[in-house]
């Protein structure tokens, strides 16, 4: 749902100060949010336009307005204890710019149970998975709803998303985050609780255009996934470790039901651009996970995979090779290396004698 006009109660807003620090809150009439620089009064934000600047209030002003002000030194000492500098949190007058959060901002700031997929990976899933409006998408692993909300946006009300989540508490978090984002539960979304194989067994054959797997063992779900996906459909799997990636890739190849997997990861680095000071920032988002993308073959047809050369053995374990052999290096190359090094040693000795 696209929201325009003044900010309303119930909406989430993002407040950013001049240092770039962000605070994301849901506007509730009468509520106050404490920050490092005073108190944000929600009534001051409700009704203003995006791009407005609001100013925090001090604790003293809030107490004065509510009639709760107490200047007794003993009361101040009791509330602050032996750390009087904590009172600086009550100082107001700090400016924040108010905006509605972007989808990426909402995903990063929303309450979460399970670890979310980063926006950089979500964008790759949408693009490489070719997920477009009107499509029927199956998602396994709802988590906190980060991927699900983006999938709901990608398919739109003309499409449909079915999410399978194993744990009921994560399904609750996922549904709540999506409901807050849209203002109501999306009508083009089914959220099913249970393990993937059991739930998918009740889904019709070839009923999905795309599948997104975000789970610990996606290689064990390929059979049911191939049954419910339409021929030519795209499967995108997100895994975090190299062992998961290896097992999944080999399972995809061994099944013969999926095309050669395409694997990649995305690294994100922001830049500082200030006058002539243009350089990468010192921190970046490095490895978060791997994406494996493959497509479903039609029933009765085996996938075509590249054949490895006989001299290139990448599957035999080192311990099963009956002992290690030295890497073969030609005598000619060895003689050249020795000749070059002897010349360098000779020059080094002559130089030291001078």
TrEMBL record:
GO cellular component: tRNA (m1A) methyltransferase complex
GO molecular-function terms, A-Z: tRNA (adenine(58)-N1)-methyltransferase activity
Annotated binding of S-adenosyl-L-methionine, by residue: 165, 214
InterPro entries the record matches: SAM-dependent_MTases_sf (IPR029063), TRM61_C (IPR049470), tRNA_MeTrfase_Gcd14 (IPR014816)
Its EC number(s): 2.1.1.220
Segments for region (Disordered): 59-84
GO biological process: tRNA methylation
Pfam families registered for this protein in UniProt: GCD14, TrmI-like_N
Domain of life of the organism encoding this protein: Bacteria
Catalytic activity: adenosine(58) in tRNA + S-adenosyl-L-methionine = N(1)-methyladenosine(58) in tRNA + S-adenosyl-L-homocysteine + H(+)
tRNA (adenine(58)-N(1))-methyltransferase catalytic subunit TRM61 C-terminal domain mapped to chain residues: 106-274
Keyword tRNA-binding: no
Keywords: Methyltransferase, S-adenosyl-L-methionine, Transferase, tRNA processing
Family note: Belongs to the class I-like SAM-binding methyltransferase superfamily. TRM61 family.
Family annotation (PANTHER family): TRNA (ADENINE(58)-N(1))-METHYLTRANSFERASE, TRNA (ADENINE(58)-N(1))-METHYLTRANSFERASE, MITOCHONDRIAL
Binding partners and assembly: Homotetramer composed of a dimer of dimers.
Function according to Swiss-Prot or TrEMBL: Catalyzes the S-adenosyl-L-methionine-dependent formation of N(1)-methyladenine at position 58 (m1A58) in tRNA.
Protein name from the UniProt record: tRNA (adenine(58)-N(1))-methyltransferase TrmI
Source species of the chain: Pseudoscardovia radai
